[in-house]
Specification:
Length: 253
Amino acid sequence: MGKLDGKVALITGAGQGVGQGIAFALAKEGARIAVSGRTESKLIDTCEAIAAFGGIAEPVVADVSSADDITRSVDTTAALFGGVDILVNNASLNPLGPINDLEAGLLERAYTSGPVAALRTMQACYPHMKERGGGAIVNMVSSVAVRWDASGYGGYASVKEAVRSLTRAAACEWGVDNIRVNAVAPHAMSPGLQRWADARPEEAAAFVASIPMRRIGDAETDIGSAVAFLVGPDAAYLTGATIPLDGGQARWA
């Protein structure tokens, strides 16, 4: 018996990296997973991997920058599995670079795929969760926003801080409906991070050295397992929080 038996989870950006790791962890706890993202082949691969260990998952192709896609993905999830209990907002465009080089158009697209998409997806899931007596939402944010020196990360930090603000507001407003909303700031190995580490090994080594635990997290066992806890019954009184899963690197207090 898993702690998420009978629950339905919609996870965006679940075809690879952190989103995939979360999908694996929630499926192993018994949740049925709507694996959402833009690239169908990656979604199918993830669903097949889940089926291989006895889990249940279906691919839901959607681009979170599209309001219509978001509505359709939530409706499809509810139609496939009978409702929505859990939402993980993981998909987002991450705008990096110095302020003088940051293109306003890129930042606009990042806001559309980040906080705007998170808002739309939460709003679309809300009636389904309320109808089922409650639910749990986890939004992915970043520890970059609490760095003293955010050079090169201003756009990225602003996008993630907007998501954090929406997380807190939703937690306060929806607690009466037994819908919990938390944020997670993860460090985990992903295809993008691996490409960066391979291209810039010295920078990557310095990055790992700045983590007290001296390693980068695993998408499933470190991040996914923690998210499974957050959306499960053992965290029933936890809402409105930002949980750093970064090996102790960032100072949040």
